[in-house]
Amino acid sequence: MSGAAAPAFAGHVAPGFEAVGDAFAENFDRHDDVGAACCVYVDGRPVVDLWGGLADLHAGRPWREDTIQLVFSATKGVTAACVHLLAERGAVDLDAPVATYWPEFAARGKDRIPICWVLCHKAGLAAVDGDLTLEQVLAWKPVVAAIAAQAPNWPPGTAHGYHARSFGWILGEVVRRVTGRSIGRFLAEEIARPLGIEFWIGLPRRELPRCARLLPAQDGTPSIADLLGAGSLTARVMTGPSGLFAYDDTWNRAEVLMAEMPSSNGVGSARALARFYAALVGEVDGFRILAPATVAAASAVQAEGPDRVILLTTRYGSGFMLPPMLAPACGARSFGHAGAGGCLGFADPEARVGFGYVTTRMKFEPTGDERTKGLVAAVYRSLR
Predict the structure, then answer these.
(1) Which bin fits 322, alpha (ψ -120 to 50), beta or left (φ > 0)?
(2) Which phi and psi (to 5°) does residue 196 adopt?
(3) pLDDT at 3 over 50
(4) Residues 59-114: tens digit of each pLDDT
(5) Catalytic residue among 73, 166, 242, 318
(6) 295 has a pLDDT exceeding 60
(7) What is the reported pTM?
(8) Closest Cα to residue 380, out of 346, 360, 351?
(9) Could you list the residue range(s) of the whole structural domain that residue 337 is in?
């Protein structure tokens, strides 16, 4: 870590990884970070664990070692791991129709949609069509019932399009039907506690005081609805269901943080993301989440090309984003998931890396987030 920037943050950087500390400081100096944390594991051990700035800009609350953060769609990688763990145990067949485990889902031509199409965004159910209140969405049963009752947005299996919210509800309901546990409870009991990570889908009320407060992007750029129309598939997906979830202060509401939205509202630390991904590609303190063969299958390309929702070329494995969707410097076999506004978690099985970055400052940059670009590039320079 270099010069005068060092006092702006706290934590630890192992010898040889000073460039990551410099990149972390640069995010505050040049890229508008307000509060953030970054953690990197290599060979199952933490080599970077940094935090700094303000967890709540308006209250002046500092980011502390135990601060946690909403990570938006970085939650999807954790949800996917839960489903793959059930498949590895033989409790779920990823090639079987969702309706095998959730019979009501078969309505309106959805009887043959396999779980694997949900994982790679080919299910044709990106937008939730039901007219729902926020209370109904957060209550779980009404929103999954709406998904079960609706018709697909396009013929399933014929194209892929980012299932920004429905991904989590469909997979979460499969987990609930198979195990009798909500996905938040399954995650806590089968992954988070054994691995020793602070990551929740459905934040306990007692943890609310240490959760950082998001700063929604306020750059004056037009919204998706402004650009494409509120009725466009993209706008319906990215703000839905029922237009309830624009990227604004909604996500700071206690009831939203405490609900279970397995695609979008995971809360945890950069340390938790890095340790989670490290435990997907190797042992961490004797614990590994999935077998190597399971991880290899989950990170193989399942969907690639024009995305019907994002309207750009995207590339997905089985529940994970794949390069070049993560950060330019990531290794070719990397897999993980970004979260709206800047958060990122990923693993590189060849470099034996687990990476996590969380931030309060939401930014949407068409050429990619400069903060994660710099951090990830610094990690790979340090590995040489």
Answers:
(1) beta
(2) 75, 45
(3) no
(4) 999 999 999 999 999 999 999 999 999 999 999 999 999 999 999 999 999 999 99
(5) 73
(6) yes
(7) 0.95
(8) 351
(9) 3-79+185-383
Give me the residues paired with residue 347 across strands: 335, 354
Q: Which residues contact 147 (CB under 8 A, 6 or more apart)?
A: 105, 125, 128, 130, 166, 169, 170
Task: List all residues 6 or more positions away from 310 whose beta carbon is below 8 Å from its beta carbon.
Answer: 161, 162, 234
Specify if 101 maps to a domain: no
Please list, in sequence order, all residues whose beta carbon lies within 8 angstroms of the beta carbon of residue 135, skipping any fewer than 6 positions away.
Answer: none
The answer to whether residue 174 is domain-embedded is no
> Tokens 């624009």 sit at which residue?
246
Using an 8 Å Cβ cutoff, are 315 and 81 in contact?
no
Contacts (Cβ under 8 Å, ≥6 apart) of 153: 124, 125, 126, 127, 161, 233
Model confidence at 283: pLDDT above 60: yes
Q: Do 326 and 346 touch, CB atoms closer than 8 A?
A: yes
Question: Of 323, 314, 318, nearest to 344 (Cα)?
Answer: 323
d(CA 74, CA 345): 6
In a domain, 176, yes or no: no
pLDDT at 217: 86
Which residue in this structure is represented by tokens 């920037």? 5
User: How far apart, in whole angstroms, are the C-alpha atoms of residue 339 and residue 325?
Assistant: 11
pLDDT tens digit sequence for 257-275? 999 999 999 999 999 999 9
CATH code, domain with 65: 3.40.710.10
Radius of gyration of the chain (CA): 19
Amino acid identity of residue 206, one-letter, is R
* Span 341-358, pLDDT tens digits: 999 999 999 999 999 999
Burial 271-292 (b: 16+ CB within 10 A, else e): bbbbbbbbbbbbebeeebbbee
For the chain, the average pLDDT equals: 94
Number of folded domains that form the chain: 1
Determine contact, residues 364/382, Cβ cutoff 8 Å: no
**Hey, which residues does 346 pair with through a beta bridge?**
336, 355
382 as an active site residue: the answer is no
In a domain, 91, yes or no: no
